[in-house]
């Protein structure tokens, strides 16, 4: 899924072989999974599914997250958003921050699942608390726009700053724009909170 995020809302274009946020290549290496990844890279999607599904069914969150992507994209199996969300959720519930970010993003967009800001906040916050930069940026947008949370520029600035610290240029642009609407004391408070923030461990 590709979309552009603006301070006033969300716009997105159709499903492509890209990723919602973080996708197919943030991967550890182990038997079965690596074979599946190699098969994916050569376009052998049925073999990828065959390698990853047993790992996912055994409860491995990384395999579950990646299996969700196969169903999102329709690779190796018919495109099935419900099945994709099911696997994302299984991984997210085990603390996989990539799956949490993607699941929260789906609820934020509301194109594959019904838009639900409460669920979006739940999963994006879980990933942001673990230091996921994309989740931090999206959380910043929710606070800036007051979507699912009370509008809070200090919180928005803090989350943008945390994402910027990890190299997010888009978060930097959002923060710069937001700063123009904040008082110096608010900016100072946001900076203080960002400096004192520590990630949580699942």
Question: Any low-confidence stretches, pLDDT <50, length ≥5?
Answer: 1-27
The helix tally amounts to 10
Structural class: mainly alpha
What is the number of beta strands?
2
Fold-level CATH name: Serine Threonine Protein Phosphatase 5, Tetratricopeptide repeat
User: Please, what is the average pLDDT?
Assistant: 86
| CATH secondary-structure class | Mainly Alpha
How would the global form be characterised?
A: elongated
Say which CATH homologous superfamily is assigned: Tetratricopeptide repeat domain
Approximate strand percentage: under 5%
> What is the radius of gyration computed over CA atoms, rounded to a whole number of angstroms?
18 Å
Q: What profile does the largest beta sheet have?
A: 2 strands, antiparallel
**How many domain regions?**
1
Order of helices and strands: EEHHHHHHHHHH
**N- to C-terminal distance:** 27 Å
- What fraction, in percent, of the residue positions are helical? 55-70%
What is the second-level CATH architecture? Alpha Horseshoe
Give, in spatial order, the strands making up the sheet with the most strands: 1-2
Map the helices and strands.
Elements: E1 2-6, E2 9-13, H1 33-41, H2 45-57, H3 61-73, H4 81-93, H5 97-109, H6 117-129, H7 133-145, H8 153-164, H9 169-179, H10 184-196
Antiparallel strand pairs: 1-2
Helix pairs in contact: 1-2, 2-3, 3-4, 4-5, 5-6, 6-7, 7-8, 7-9, 8-9, 8-10
């Amino acid at each position: 899924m590709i979309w552009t995020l603006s301070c006033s809302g969300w716009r997105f274009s159709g499903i492509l072989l890209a990723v919602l946020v973080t996708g197919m290549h943030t991967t550890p290496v182990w038997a079965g999974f690596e074979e599946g990844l190699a098969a994916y890279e050569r376009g052998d999607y049925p073999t990828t599914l065959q390698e990853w599904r047993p790992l996912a069914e055994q409860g491995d969150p990384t395999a579950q997250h990646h299996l969700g992507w196969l169903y999102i994209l329709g690779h190796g199996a018919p495109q099935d958003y419900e099945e994709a969300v099911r696997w994302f959720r299984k991984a997210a519930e085990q603390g996989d921050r990539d799956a949490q970010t993607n699941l929260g993003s789906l609820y934020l967009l509301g194109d594959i699942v019904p838009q639900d800001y409460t669920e979006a906040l739940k999963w994006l916050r879980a990933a942001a608390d673990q230091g996921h930069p994309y989740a931090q940026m999206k959380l910043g947008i929710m606070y800036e726009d007051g979507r699912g949370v009370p509008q809070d520029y200090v919180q928005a600035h803090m989350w943008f700053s945390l994402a910027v610290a990890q190299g997010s240029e888009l978060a930097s642009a959002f923060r710069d724009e937001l700063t123009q609407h904040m008082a110096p004391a608010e900016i100072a408070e946001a900076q203080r909170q960002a400096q004192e923030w520590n990630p949580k461990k699942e």
